[in-house]
């Protein structure tokens, strides 16, 4: 993710180094917080569930199980335990404000399971496990509890299908502030994209970055409406049904749930193949025809930026590429949705802003998308690197060196105690994006100064090329393995410390 470009003036935004506004505390309100009898729309289905559960002899409303979350310290309800998601097939119809359809999740149990937990905020109508009807209910707003007729054994592969329908405008997820909602609407236009959470607004999932899986998205819309998502555009239909089209997107490499997205509306598409990779660029037709042409022109630079980043990071990790510019005023400047980053229109159009914005989001294809987070407090692994690659490209284009950029950033922030008060390795759930865009790349340049050019280059490339979920501790272990230099002072100063690091060689300030 990139911070937004500043005022809503449509252009001339400040560079990406601008710090985003401090996120507000999350709203504590969630559906189901209040007594259900005061909320008729929620109360009646809940009453039915209670009655159904009583009839089935289960007795009391079940308590939250340890498996109802992935164990994330910042978002304890996010994700699930007990299985490894392998693939999602999301199959929806969008009609007016309502999404209706099913998602089929294929997973492998990592322990014996009586209940499979998923995260979804939309109302569920039915579920099956391996084709057999299963008991299903939603607890605490988004914890979907699917109970198969027969238990699932450790190691067993199983298929959960969930049928659901509802208005994503009714969804609220604990820990996600209302002004950072992933749901975007403007007239008939619909968009769902955001970080750290977005999937609960449109599909049931193990919603945690540590469990990436294959994604396939099929969305049926009235003919004339476009649907944009991740991966390859397999089909845009215009077939049997006279008034409806089903858009089919498929990504061939696993992705974290928040890296999938859905855009529905009027879009101008450009498609083709470069270097053997299919691309799709999409720009909202809510922009003027001239703006559309300009924005498509920026998106068309994508293969060139990828080729340049490959010289630093090794081969691009995905089969497809692209970019999308929706009509919405996102609270972010860009988001690294896998294979197809989302850009804020006025950020991409701002003079001098497009290059660094695209480099940042495309660098995330390696750092964040191929290498995912173990936990949300590992956000440095995403944003530190994506921001650092902006510095690398800036230097290569004749700008200040990465070290000069580190020193300038440090001098700009040295007297800002609020900035340093947020530790890089534990920023807190409300401040995961608060300082990492500057503190992250400074820490990396300090490391480069300490361990030297060759070790740093190898470390960066090896880290970028090995897929999977890893933590800041994993990165520290890798860094230590490359060098005889004592990295403890560096780690203390840049990751743990709550004051500006002393300007010493041990902290990685070069000559
Ligand atoms: Zn980012």
From TrEMBL:
GO terms for cellular component: cytoplasm. Keywords: Cytoplasm, Hydrolase, Membrane, Metal-binding, Metalloprotease, Protease, Transmembrane, Transmembrane helix, Zinc. The chain crosses the membrane at residues 37-60. The active site is at 361 (proton acceptor), 437 (proton donor). The keyword Chloroplast does not apply. CDD domains: M1_APN_like (cd09603). The keyword Membrane applies. Binds 1 zinc ion per subunit. This is Aminopeptidase N.
